[in-house]
Amino acid sequence: MVEELFRQDAYLKEAEATVTALDERGVRLDRSIFYPTGGGQPGDTGVLRWDGGEARIVDALKAPSADGSGGDVLHVLAPDAARPALGAKVQSALDWERRYLHMRMHTALHVMSAVIKGNVTGGQVGADKSRLDFNLEGEVPAKEWVTEEVNKLIALDRPVTPQWITDEELNARPELVKTMSVRPPMGAGRGRLLAIEGVDLQACGGTHVARTGEIGRVECIKIENKGKMNRRFVIALT
Question: Which fold, 98-237?
Answer without folding.
Answer: Threonyl-tRNA Synthetase; Chain A, domain 2 (3.30.980)
